[in-house]
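During the second year of the project, the team shifted from modelling isolated chains to modelling whole assemblies. The rationale, set out in the original proposal, was that interfaces cannot be judged from single-chain predictions alone. As a representative example for this report, we include one of the complexes processed in the last quarter. Its constituent sequences, exactly as entered into the pipeline, are reproduced here:
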Amino acid sequence: MSPFRIASWNVNSVKARLPHLLAFLAAEKPDVLCLQETKCLESDFPRLEIEAAGYRVEALGQRAYNGVALLSLKAAEDPLRGLPGDPADAEARYIEASFGAVRVASLYLPNGNPVESAKFAYKLSWMERLAARAEALLLREIPFVLAGDYNVCPADEDVYDPVAFAGDALCRIESRSRFRSLLYQGLADAFRLFHREPHRYTFWDYQAGRWNRDEGLRIDHLLLSPDAADRVLDCDIDRKPRGKERASDHTPIWCALDLCAKSSRKRRPE
DNA sequence: ATGGTAGCCTTGCTA
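Output from the structure prediction step:
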């Protein structure tokens, strides 16, 4: 059986990016594509065009900002819309569903700038809710992937100018320590399982020619549960979509899982 | 050099 491929892409408006999105689906044919910053209500989602390309749509949206979705060749099962832990949080930043044996989340973590504002506190509390969700999923002992725009550069080597970004919410120690906590819980940063080199980015600001100078940030991540990490075959960043005209400021990251592989992982006792 | 760009049912906000 061929590998199960999962990609994640912050498209910065699914309507503005529809031609590039359809081209990516046709060229790469991922089993699941996680989208962030769709920036539209579910009722405005370009569902017909995506379904005509052979993909199912599970979306959580709001007007103008945020918005996440799961596009998949096979139907999503048992979807969860919204990150648990705060009933007052109305921002459309998390959607999760099962696709056969693997569970996948598409998440758009709050940016958190400026750090003096309530936005930073919201970011940190959102990360703690994500950790709680990860713990609940880990107890299931299933392969799962938490994919998306984390708005966290895990280390200085993931930033083109770490000095300039030292105080930025994407690089602050509070953000990095919470990201590391997810790893200490048992999740694996899929990209770093296969690539040790510094300065590999997933985002380049539209301003100041950052793309042409390859001055970017690594903020889009695929975090794998132990049972997913046991089965991962490869992971990489696909820079091609960022080089197009009218591109998103982010480019896709993907991984391939061998779901037929047996895990040798010891189960927790009953 | 306090700019620059892109997308949003916009005239500022978010990134």
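Chain A has six helices and twelve strands. The longest helix of chain A spans residues 118-138.
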